[in-house]
Write a structure and sequence with these properties.
globular, mainly alpha, single chain
C-alpha cells in the first residue's frame, strides 16, 4: 500500500505554498568571506605562519568546545552512573542523530582537506623551489581561493550554512588533535610477579 502523504499532490503543493524558507544566499554572507580570507592567509603564508594560524584555530576551538565538552561529559557520566540502562539508550539516540550527518560529512571533509592541504602543498613547493617570483605565488593563491569558492558554493547547494561550515572547517585541527590524544595516560606502575 502506497503512503498517501507521499503520493498526494495536494499536500505537496499546500506545503510548498504555506512553508517558504527564505535563506540569504550563502555566498553573500560574512562567513563565506571569512573562510576565503583565512584560506588566502594560509595559502600565502610561509610554513611557520601557517602553523601559527592553525594553532590559533586550535585555541579558538578549545575555548569554545572545551568547557562544553567537560560539562556534557559530566552530565553524561552522572546519568550513566545513576541509570546504567540509560547509557545504551543514549548511545543509540546519538548514533541515530549522527547518521543524518554522514551524508554531509564527506562533502565537508573534502572541503576541509582542500582548505588545509592546498596551502601545505603550496608552502612545500615554495620551500623546494627557491626564489619563486611573487606573481607565481599570487597566481597560486588566487586560483586556490577561486577553487575554494566553488567548493563552498557546491556545499551551499547541498544545504550547508556558511556559519556552521566555517566553524566545522576551523575546528578540524582541534578535532584531529583530540583524536590523536591517547584515551588514557598510563602511569608507570611496577608489575608484580606471580609466585608459585
Amino acid at each position: 500500500m502506497k503512503n498517501f502523504f507521499e503520493e498526494s499532490d495536494f499536500l505537496k503543493t499546500t506545503i510548498r505554498k504555506n512553508v517558504t524558507i527564505e535563506r540569504k544566499p550563502q555566498v553573500n554572507t560574512i562567513w563565506h568571506g571569512v573562510l576565503l580570507i583565512l584560506f588566502g592567509l594560509l595559502a600565502y603564508g610561509s610554513m611557520t605562519q601557517q602553523l601559527l594560524l592553525i594553532a590559533l584555530f586550535v585555541v579558538i576551538a578549545a575555548i569554545v568546545k572545551g568547557p562544553l565538552m567537560l560539562l556534557w561529559g559530566a552530565v553524561y557520566s552522572a546519568l550513566i552512573a545513576f541509570f546504567p540502562p540509560l547509557g545504551l539508550l543514549l548511545s543509540i539516540v546519538f548514533f541515530l542523530i549522527n547518521l543524518g550527518t554522514v551524508a554531509k560529512s564527506w562533502r565537508i571533509s573534502l572541503t576541509s582537506a582542500y582548505f588545509y592541504l592546498v596551502p601545505l602543498i603550496g608552502s612545500i613547493l615554495r620551500a623546494v623551489i627557491k626564489n619563486e617570483p611573487t606573481y607565481a605565488v599570487l597566481v597560486f593563491v588566487a586560483v586556490s581561493v577561486l577553487g575554494l569558492h566553488f567548493l563552498l558554493h557546491w556545499l551551499y547547494k547541498n544545504n550547508s550554512l556558511s556559519r556552521s561550515l566555517t566553524w566545522s572547517i576551523i575546528s578540524v585541527p582541534y578535532a584531529i588533535m583530540i583524536m590523536l590524544l591517547p584515551t588514557r595516560f598510563h602511569r608507570l606502575k611496577p608489575t608484580k610477579k606471580l609466585k608459585f
